[in-house]
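CORE FACILITY INTAKE
Project code: CF-77B
Contact: R.S. (postdoc)
Sample description: multi-component assembly, two entities in total
Requested service: structural model of the whole complex
Turnaround: standard
Below are the sequence entries exactly as provided by the requester. Do not edit them.
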Amino acid sequence: NAGVTQTPKFQVLKTGQSMTLQCAQDMNHEYMSWYRQDPGMGLRLIHYSVGAGITDQGEVPNGYNVSRSTTEDFPLRLLSAAPSQTSVYFCASSKKAGTHNTFGSGTRLTVV
Amino acid sequence: AQKITQTQPGMFVQEKEAVTLDCTYDTSDQSYGLFWYKQPSSGEMIFLIYQGSYDEQNATEGRYSLNFQKARKSANLVISASQLGDSAMYFCAMREGGRDDKIIFGKGTRLHILP
């Protein structure tokens, strides 16, 4: 049982480049979400999904796109990377309502 | 709108003492859940404890307990008999029920356990 798998673990991008952070879970969780963690800011919700085909914006959605075509996968796309997107990104999943998130191990992204 | 406030950026506690990490929340929902996570220096997020808004008793998990005071909208984490391995970042989080089913986090408290 792999849980929540994030790839890559580390990435360096140049300003303006695009990339996709991958997230997959094998627990049949309905709910998936992306957070970014910056020093002193805690974890801020970027986008979340309550099921396949449904996505919604979190606290800091600008500059990021998501889609949820399957229950298992929830990729996060950066269309044109900016230095302000340098951060650690966490993907998480849970069953709906009243349960905690299971987190992936994180992706450390640096935009230069 | 949901809001989680952790007012202690950092704390230093002597080993074997009990420690309380503060968390207050704001929500207009009647149904919600409160969580605490631990993030050690290795970076992974570890779920510690959960309290539902309708739970009458405070949640406990081993050395962790959640002091839930609904009227004051507080959900403090209590760690009994602290250990060196408790040194970490601790996050309080809240999940509202209903359609807007998202989990938001506070900014965290860094706990240092002193030998």
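Facility notes:
- The interface with chain B takes residues 31, 33, 35, 40-45, 48, 50, 56, 58-59, 88, 90, 92, 94, 96-103, 105-106 of chain A (CB under 8 Å).
- The first strand of chain A starts at residue 4 and ends at 7.
Invoice: internal transfer
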